[in-house]
Amino acid sequence: GRKYGVMPLLAGAISMSAGYLFSLEDYETAEGIQLEARDLALSANFAPSIVSPSIDLLLIAARRGDPGSVETLFNETVEASKKNPGWHGWLWELRVSQVRAELAFARADWEGAIAAATVGIDQCRRCSRLKYEALGLITRAQALWRSNRATEAMADARQAVEVARVTRDPALLLRASDTLL
């Protein structure tokens, strides 16, 4: 990428390379890779390559239980995703819904997490994005459980396992199964 001057594509490839580390909950390494990808994308001034690693950085902060550290990044990411809707706008929109749900969950805002996850799940079902549907179901199940709504939580957790199984993503299936258990 550097040799042929395609920095935006290099930034995207670097960002994608962190996916498996993120799935395995190696947040420290995944964060380092996403920061590298985002910095490269910023230097190339190519918004589409900035948004995806930013979303992953937001999810890392949420899963670490540190939602307050990314408020500015969240606003910048939402703004950048709306300025470039033709690129991957539909995908960013549903990923941002998942970010909203996970950040609300990390803040112990169970109702906010349920509402944001529900929006994301509905978006995913319209465009058949099973991975994010499963993640939304997992987040909503966890928030429902914390809200003392066990019956609804169990239904979402079971559905998350079913959806995750279809994706054939073992890390996602493990995450869904853990929520069910």
SSE map:
Elements: H1 7-17, H2 19-23, H3 27-44, H4 47-63, H5 71-83, H6 85-106, H7 110-127, H8 130-146, H9 150-167, H10 170-180
Structure description:
By secondary structure, the chain is an all-alpha fold. It is built from ten helices and no strands. The chain starts with 6 loop residues before the first helix and ends with a helix. The model has no long low-confidence stretch (mean pLDDT 93).
Concise account of the structure shown:
By secondary structure, this protein is mainly α. It has ten helices and no strands. Helix 9 (150-167) packs antiparallel against helix 10.
Overview features:
single chain; 181 residues; mainly alpha
Biggest sheet, open or closed, and with what strands and sense?
none
Strand residue percentage: under 5%
Oligomeric grouping of the chains: single chain
Rg for CA atoms: 16 Å
What's the helical proportion of residues? over 70%
Q: Average pLDDT, to the nearest integer?
A: 93
Helical/strand content category = mainly alpha
